[in-house]
Amino acid sequence: MMDFQHDGDVKNLHQEASLKLTELQQKLFLCGSKCNECFLHCILERSHPGNHSCKGDHRCKQACTHCSDDGAPCMQLNDCSDVAGHAGSHDCQQKEHTCHQECSYYGKVSNCNRKCSLHARHGGEHKCSSRMHMCLMPCSLPGCTNHCVNPFEKGDHDQHACHENWCPKSCEMPGCNRNCASKNHFHDLETRGNTVAKHHFCEYEHQCNELCEMPGLCEVQTELVKNTSTFQGKRSSFEYEYVSEQNWYRKYCCIAIPAFKVHTCNIL
Question: What is the pLDDT of residues 220-240, one digit of tens each?
Fold first, then answer.
């Protein structure tokens, strides 16, 4: 009985199915950046183009914390008028619970909630409900639309880095659309500036796209060709169909290329 695990066609089919499954799994990875309209996480595909979105209405669904602290009955609690995912207490902003003046960091950081959340008539600078303000500058990686997540209060920093800890480039192997295996978001910048050749490769083996080079023929196929001929006998004749034409084929190589290699014997 043939061992199907060692059959070349089965090997190629297994490699192709593994490639499609991995690509599908990577499409299920979520972005995780902050939504452009609120403070919830973006639920679009990782490394997606365009704006970040939580796909919601961006409104907070909780009741006002200050109305509850004032002893108001449950039926009289006002809804929070803030955006979804905000930090700190919930504020209806219909009463003088909080300051409501513009936060001192507004326009300087990426995650400011704008309105001061401190008690009304407080002293000192105005601060919103964000626990820590983040840098407003975009990520230093060209093409990345995310904002830097370094704390604004810590001052200047050498590189603006977003929340992503993966390389957004795709694998360079032909036909492979999986993500680069590097966990360095700035892997592509290092590749350009380094004299040592660096490449973007996934962490999986790849299917070889070359034809088989072994002596002989990989497969001979007999194809049905309906040719009609006439048999002539002494007393009668009749027509019949006969099969002809055989074609030979070379199959594609079934030896998998190991991860991080371009050939089975060439390590990068």
Answer: 777 767 777 777 777 888 777
Backbone angles phi, psi at 9, to 5 degrees: -65, -40
Look at residue 209 and give its three-state secondary structure.
coil
Structural domain boundaries, residue 244: 211-249
Q: Is the domain of 218 the same as that of 203? A: no
- pTM to 2 decimal places: 0.62
What Cα–Cα distance (Å) separates residue 118 from each residue in 49, 62, 82, 100, 128? 37, 19, 15, 8, 7
Count how many domains the chain has.
3
9 in any annotated domain: no
Q: Is residue 245 located within the same domain as residue 181?
A: no
* 99-129 as b/e: b if 16+ CB within 10 A: bebebebbeebbbbbbbbbbeeeeeeebbbb
Residues pairing with 229 in the sheet: 240
**What pLDDT does 1 receive?**
42
| Ramachandran region, residue 15 (left: φ > 0; alpha: ψ -120 to 50; beta: rest) | alpha
CA–CA gap between residue 247 and residue 227 (Å, rounded): 17
| C-alpha span between 98 and 86 (Å, rounded) | 15
Two tokens at 144?
A: 């990345």
Q: Would residue 190 count as lying in a domain?
A: yes
